[in-house]
Amino acid sequence: MSESATTTVPEKQQAPSVARASGSMAIATIVSRATGLLSKVLLIAVIGGDILNTSYQAATTLPTMINELLLGGILTSVAIPLLVRAEKEDGDGGESYAQWLISMGTAILGAGTVVAVACAPLLTDLFIADSDEANPALVTAFAYLVLPGIVFYGLTALLSAVLNARHVFGMPTWAPVLNNLVVIVVLAVYAMLPGELTLNPVRMTDVHLLVLGLGTALGVAVQAIALFPALRKTGFRFKWRFGWDSRLSEFGGLAFWVLLYVALGFVSMMVLTNVATHSKTALVAFNYQWLIAQVPYGVLGVSLLTALMPKMSRAAANHDNDAIVRDLLFGNRMSAILLMPFSALMTVSGVAIGLAAFAWGEAGTESGTRIGLALALSAFGLVPYAITLLQLRVFYAMKDARTPTFIQALIVAVRIALLYVFLAVASPEQLAVGVSLAMSLSFVFGAIVGQVWLRVRLGRLRTGFTLWTVCLTVVASSIAFAVAKGLNALLLGVLGTIDPVVAAWVEVVLVTVVGLPLAFGLLAAFRVPEMQPAVAKIIRLVRRR
C-alpha cells in the first residue's frame, strides 16, 4: 500500500479534554446501558430464566465474548497507537493506512466468522460438553443465526478506533443504542407470536427461533453500519486496500498477540460456560449480574479510558514515560473514585437490584433473587476489573501486545482453577455465585500482576497514592451505604409487610438516592484531589444562585 496521499483530509481537530470527552460519552453510554438493560429485562421476562434462556446465552457466548474483547478495547487499543503514528508520519494524515486497517481487519474477521458458523456444532460441544441443563440442538440452531454478528462486532471496533483517533467519541458510543432498540423491537415481535418455540424437535424453520436469532444478529449489523456516516463526516473516504505496507510486519506482530489474547478469552469463556451449564440457571444468573455490574463501568470507566487512550498513545509515541505514568495514576485513582461507590451499592443492595430488575414475567422472584445474590457477592471485582483494563491499555499504547497476553494467560489460569474449585464444592443452586466470584477474584489477581509488571517497565508508579485513594473510597462508601441501609430498614419497618418486588424497588431507589451522593460528598470532605474541580463548580453554581 502506498503511503502517498491520493485524497485530502480535513485539518486535524484539536483534541478535546479528557473531562469533556468523558462527559459527552457518559451521556450516550447511560442511554446505551439503559436500553441494553431494558432489552435484557424483556428477554428474561419473555423467555424466562431456565433452559431456553440458558441455551440462548450459551449460543451467544462467542459473539458476546468477541464484543467484550474487541469493543471493550483490545482491538481498539492496538489500532489507535498505529493510527496515531500514521496520522503523524503520513502525508495524507493516515487516511490510507486507516483504509488498509479496516480492509484487512474486515477480511480476517469475515473469514473467522465463516469458520465459526461452519463449526457451530463443535462450538456447542465445547461450551456444553457434559451438561444436561442446556439443549444442544437449540444451542447449535441459535449459534448458526447469531455467529455472523462476529464480523459486525469487529467492524464496529475498527471503525470506532478510526473515529477515536480523529477525536470523535460520540457516535461510537451512541451506536450500541441502535443495537439495543432493534433487539427490543425483536423481543416485542417475539412476545406477540402465537405458540411457543418447539424444543423437541428443534427446527431451523421455527419462526420463534428465526425471529430471536436473526434479530440478535441484525442489531449488531445496524450498530456497525451506523458508524459509516460519522466517518464520512470527518472527511474520511473508505476504499478497499490490500497491498503491502512497510508497517505490515508491525501490525502482524501485534495482531498475532491480540488473536492469542482472544483465544485465551475464548478458553476462559468456554470453561466458564461449561461449568455454569451444570446448573439450569447459573449461566443466566451470571450473565445478568455481569450485565448489571458493567453498567457503572460502561458509563464511567469506558468513557474515561476511551478518552485517555489516544492521550497515552501520543505520550508513548513521544517516548514520554512520565506522561504515561501520570495518565495511569489519574486513571487508577479516577476508576476507584467513580466506581467504588457503585460497587458498594451493588454489594449492600444486590439482591434488591436483582428482584427489582428481573423478577418479572416468566422469570419470577426466584430468578431475580439468584441474580441479585450473585451480584452482591461479586461486586467487589468492579474496581480491580477497571484497573486491570487500564493497565493493559498502557501496554497497548506502547505498542506492546505481548505483555497483555501474558497477563491475560495468568488471569485465565487463576480463573479456570477457581471455576473448577467452585464446581467441586458448590451445589447447583450456589453455582451462579461461584462462577461470579471466580471472575471477580481473577481480576483482583490481574490488577496486582499488572501493577507489578508496569512498575518493572516504567519505574515508580506512586502505587501508594492509588492505594490511599482506594482506602478513602472504601471508607466513604462504607459510611454512606451503612446510613442508607439504616434509613431503608426504618422505612420498611414503617411500611410493614409489602410485596417483595415493591420492597426491592423501595430499597434500590432509597439506597441509591441517599448512598451515592453521600459517598461522593464524603470523598469531597476527605479532600480527595480529583473531587476538587467538581466541588469548585458546585460552589460557583451556588454562589450564582
Unreliable residue runs: 1-15
The succession of helices and strands, N to C, reads: HHHHHHHHHHHHHHHHHHHHH
Query: Looking at the structure, what is the overall shape?
Result: globular
User: Termini, distance in Å?
Assistant: 60 Å
Rg (C-alpha, Å): 23 Å
Oligomer: single chain
Distinct helical segment count: 21
Secondary structure: helix percent: over 70%
Structural class: mainly alpha
Largest sheet: none
Please give the number of β-strands: 0
Q: DSSP strand (E) fraction?
A: under 5%
Please, what is the average pLDDT?
81
List keywords for this structure.
single chain, 545 residues, mainly alpha, 21 helices, 79% helix, globular, disordered N terminus
Helices and strands in order, then pairings?
Elements: H1 18-47, H2 51-59, H3 61-70, H4 74-89, H5 95-118, H6 120-127, H7 136-146, H8 149-165, H9 170-192, H10 207-225, H11 227-233, H12 248-276, H13 282-317, H14 321-358, H15 364-378, H16 382-397, H17 402-425, H18 431-458, H19 463-495, H20 500-525, H21 532-544
Helix pairs in contact: 1-9, 1-13, 2-7, 2-13, 3-8, 3-12, 4-5, 4-8, 4-12, 4-13, 5-8, 6-7, 7-10, 8-10, 8-11, 9-10, 12-17, 13-14, 13-15, 13-16, 13-18, 14-15, 14-16, 14-19, 14-20, 15-18, 16-18, 17-18, 19-20
